């Protein structure tokens, strides 16, 4: 399955859920750039399976420095689990 086909299926599965849509985009956009070519983004953008929100967020995700792109790139960063556990333990007793 090609990336465009995968993203079309992802768009159908994530309708109405922005978080899922951004997680699908995260698979192809990382801190170094995108795995999509401009032509693939254009084809995906014009696909009728995408909702208006998905089209707008797709376009913003491929603009360098946009808040949407930065958000998606931050989804790829590892979380510091030890700090989360420390805070959880601190407030569990209260």
Describe the protein in words:
The protein has a two-stranded antiparallel ribbon with strand order 1-2. Helices cover 63% and strands 4% of the residues. The radius of gyration is 16 Å and the shape is elongated. α1 packs parallel to α3 (38-45) and α2 packs parallel to α4 (52-61). 14% of the residues are buried. The termini are far apart. The model has no long low-confidence stretch (mean pLDDT 82). The chain is mainly alpha-helical and 94 residues long. It has one domain (3-92). The chain is built from 6 helices and 2 strands; from the N terminus they run ααββαααα. β1 (29-30) and β2 form a beta hairpin. The chain has helices spanning 3-13, 18-26, 38-45, 52-61, 67-75, 81-92; strands spanning 29-30, 33-34.
Relevant terms:
elongated; mainly alpha; about 5% strand; single chain; two-stranded antiparallel sheet; about 90 residues
């Amino acid at each position: 399955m090609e990336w465009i086909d995968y993203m079309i299926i992802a768009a159908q599965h994530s309708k109405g859920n922005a978080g899922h849509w951004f997680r699908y985009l995260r698979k192809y956009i990382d801190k170094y750039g995108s795995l999509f070519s401009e032509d693939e983004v254009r084809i995906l953008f014009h696909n009728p399976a995408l909702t208006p929100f998905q089209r707008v967020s797709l376009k913003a995700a491929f603009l360098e420095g946009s808040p949407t792109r930065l958000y998606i790139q931050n989804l790829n960063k590892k979380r510091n689990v030890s700090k989360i556990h420390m805070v959880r333990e601190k407030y569990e007793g209260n």
